[in-house]
Amino acid sequence: MELFPPIPLREWSDTKETLHRFLQIVGKIRLSASPRRNHWWNVPFHLTGNGITTRPMGLVDGNAMFTVDFDFVSHLLVARTIDGRSASFSLPGHSVSSFYRETRATLEGLGVHVRIPHPRPYDLPDADRPFEEDTEHATYDPNAAHRYWFVLSQVGMVLEEYAAGFSGKTSPVHHFWHTFDIAMTRFGSRALDQPREAGPLVREAYSRDVVSFGFWFGDETVAEPAFYAYVVPEPDGLAERPLEPARAEWASSGQGHLALLRYEHVRKEPDPRGVVLSFYESAYRAGADLLGWDVDAVDCPHGVTDPLCEIG
């Protein structure tokens, strides 16, 4: 199987826009039905062998434990309860409106009563339109959805490998439904006092200094898939630091910079996995050095902290 197969945004943008809203609906259920974790770690999806999962949730919202999974091999939404009952429906053929109604009806049929405080898209152009009224987004190409999951899974494994080299506080590798990216973040110990006007999402996500790494499938700003990294707070001189490979760049993003490496550039390399790992490491070294982190103290070669362990 090809590592990092082609997935140009233009070829599946309609499916991506529909699927993004499907994920937001289930993601908002996860947000409402899970115990809150620092930096919103309770909110994103995690990867499975055939799609993505909310992981177990419930109890805190009065429901028994339940999960909701997207199966991008059989193209189903699957809900399960802790007592072994399950229900599912096919993903193709749904608009956002019908998906929203069917998801809620499926959970109700299992005795799961969910509440979505704000049942509309988050930070998307149609953020004022309720999910139930969205009949515009209704494209689901099974081949495109499977390719999305396939790429997501491959990138996820590279991020897992890169995460192993750091023994400090590290987020899981997780898929964010609000931004439709997959990411992993390394944390420092410096507390940041974000301004109140930054809002609760930013204040919680960046309450410590971080270097974050990820991948997204493209959007209106960068209209192609790309690997990325960024540093918060962004230190002076970050954009002057070198990145690997030479095709990587520091791109302006709002008030700061993103380290960017285009997916198509990676695909053409003899060792694409190694190139991505080198890219992440170069961005990490640039950010951690300027933030004043003790890089040696948290270094964790091959995921091992035992000084007597021999790596074979």
UniProtKB/TrEMBL annotation:
<protein>
    <recommendedName>
        <fullName>Ava_C0101 and related proteins</fullName>
    </recommendedName>
</protein>
<dbReference type="Pfam" id="PF19459">
    <property type="entry name" value="DUF5996"/>
</dbReference>
<dbReference type="InterPro" id="IPR046038">
    <property type="entry name" value="DUF5996"/>
</dbReference>
